[in-house]
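TEACHING EXERCISE
Course module: macromolecular assemblies
Task: Read the component lines below, then compare them to the predicted structure of the full complex.
Student: A.B.
Group: 4
Components provided:
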Amino acid sequence: MDSSLINVEFLIDTFFVALSGVPIALLVTVVALAIALPIGFFLALTRINEIPVLNGFTKVYVSFVRGTPIIIQIFVLYSILPLILSRIFEQYNIDFPIYDVNPLWYAFIIFSFNTGATLVEVFRSALKTVSAGQLEAAYSVGLSTAQAYRRIVIPQMLVSAMPNLCTATINLIKATSLGYAISLQEITLKAKVAANVGYNYLEAYIDIFIVYLILCITVEYLFKVAEKRLSRYKALATA
Amino acid sequence: MEKYFDINYLWTALPQLLPYLWITLFVAALAVIFGSLLGLLIAVFKLSKNRFLRFIANSYITIMRCTPSIVLLFLVYYGVPAFSDYFFGIYLQDVSTGVFVVITFSLQFAAMMAEVIRSAYLSVDKGQYEAAVSVGLTPFQAYRRIIFPQAVVIALPNFGNGLISVLQEGALAYTIGFIDIVGKANLIIANNYNTHTLEIYIALAVFYWILSIAIEKFFGKLEKVFSKGQRSLKTS
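Instructor-supplied answer key:
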């Protein structure tokens, strides 16, 4: 086996290097989702209820995020954020080393910004599937708006939002592979750095590919389970 | 410090980038053509009664959905020359990087299109085909004259979305050294000793934003034109 094509030993070693980037990728995904979910939901509500200023703002925000590649958003945010922050810190004489910040923080901001816009659209279309009568009925039995949303609207909405949420989550995990642009130590960057030594790029990318495949299939499976559990709300929703 | 961000620089950057926009568009167009053909094939596989073919189609779609563009890009960039050299003795190191960009995004677009084509095909009522055959059309004629035109209208919005997404994913082509609009932008930045980075990136964002909105509007119009006179219950 004159394996000039693939260095199997390196392939196996680097697989674990790539795997060691999974916690960072998942951390970014979870934090970004935790920030983006409420933002997306409330902005979706402003779109549906046509709240004057916020509605227009949300439109532009969603249009920008959907209209530009993520890598460009990363480029723009990564160069604009330090600029703005250093201005503010200068103004108030705060001595803060803005250029030494852990890229993780930038990753949180950038990916929340991106996912937030996706979720606005996901929630907007999901909210539309819940008929207005549901909310009226909730009011008429004496629930407050918060209660009505929490107990009546949101559970039903989630049922139809689930497939799109799954897609958004997977896209987010995939997008973390662009973390190299802000030197985030995630799956892709770690394996690539390992490959730099001996130019074993093909092996490294095969490893990266397998890791993402495993991640993605696991997430899809989890969402399927969640969808099944949520679907008990569905019987009434489509009646 | 005042001059760190210079809005005027944006106006000098735009004309420098514009010629490279065509390269971006050209590559995207090629990817759309090859991707649609491959997508059609995969859709046929997925709709076929053969279990093995369905398995191939499903695996292909899952793998493409789960692989980040940048990983696929590098897999193709390093993998295709290595494989062709190893198995066929064909030396591909000197091939233009553009070829690998087109291959990557065709593969990705094909997976998107397979789903679009499949769902469009399934949404055309079976009775349409039966009716066409019963008035004496051959199966091929029925597909070409009855099923296909209807499926195209249904597929249009998703096709437009796919187009926008392949264009945006194409922004990563610079990572393998391809000089499209993003590659050129990075060259300009390097030539300026890394100053005016933000202005260039904003110019890029503007290009993509306008392009995406234009495509969206165009497909919206197209859909309206094609669905004229269609009697369906599409009220939502």
